[in-house]
Specification:
single chain, alpha/beta, Rossmann fold, Helicase, Ruva Protein, domain 3, Zinc Finger, Delta Prime, domain 3, five-stranded parallel β-sheet, 17 helices, 9% strand, transferase, P-loop_NTPase, DNA_pol3_clamp-load_cplx_C, DNA replication, EC 2.7.7.7
Length: 341
Amino acid sequence: MIAEWKKIEKKQFAPIYLIIGTEDYIINETKKRLVANILDTEDTDFNYANFDLDETAIEQVIEEAETIPFFGDRRLIVASNPSFLTTEKTKSKIEHRTARFEDYLNEPVDYSILVIIARVEKLDERKKLTKLLKKQATIVDAKRPNDAELRKWIQSAIKNNDFSMEIPAIERLMELTGGQLTTAMNELDKLMLYKLESREISVADVESLVVRSLEQNIFLLLDKMIALDISGALSIYYDLLKQKEEPIKILALIASQFRLLTQIKLLEKQGFSQQQVAQKLKVHPFRVKIGARQAKSFSYEQLTATLERLAEMDFEMKTGYGDKAQRLEWFLFSLQDQRVK
């Protein structure tokens, strides 16, 4: 659990919080804890305000924060999307007069809790206002966790809810949810609800209950092909067709995965670690982990040859040459011949 959550639950509040990061689970759980511990149910409507800074000027937010609470002891003011603190371009036409915000940061009121939520990797550190905010605020890091951190999040949730879950089941949950904390925790909630009586979650439970995204099905399809499990690969492919997924879209995702395998293969040859590869390619480390495992079954030449064939198939499909579903089916049959012998 994040250290600041424990303080919030002990009602040890900071006057200003800055939540930085793109992980929705951490952002939403922090907000939930603040609401539950700061506000009484009956005065939430009076003492809680939520603003989008792409639509509301920061001085309006500060005015709200300086308003004395109605019927309760404290007010909770949440303001999201502070684009004026980032390098990101925005279509918002709102002009923020930040002088009043600076004054508030230097001397916040004692009856309001102000929460600034920035769903970005980092703020613009060159700005004087950014430096002041980071100095005065209590920072909650909402970055996406790495493998080890994600495993700890899952294990902590299991322990706190008095469940047991074997390590292979945890690993499979991480794999099927693509290393995404928010998705993993949502699926874990579903698993715990399903196994409420026994309170034990197995690999079989994860396999049968966790919803696979289209991308995850593509990963699994390639795993089946690499293992020469033709019937397993075709079963996944036919399931995707039954779900009304277009063959051209499936082909595009397969091509995207092979492109990733090719890049991973090349960068690993150059001595880059998986973490460095993820940073260089700007993809989730979990995708690189799965991709590195899959890439071992192909040479660099075989991967580039497969990419060329996929490009030809894409052209053929888009120009109406042959039956789309059947052409991709034959590709799956032939992929085993591309493996390293």
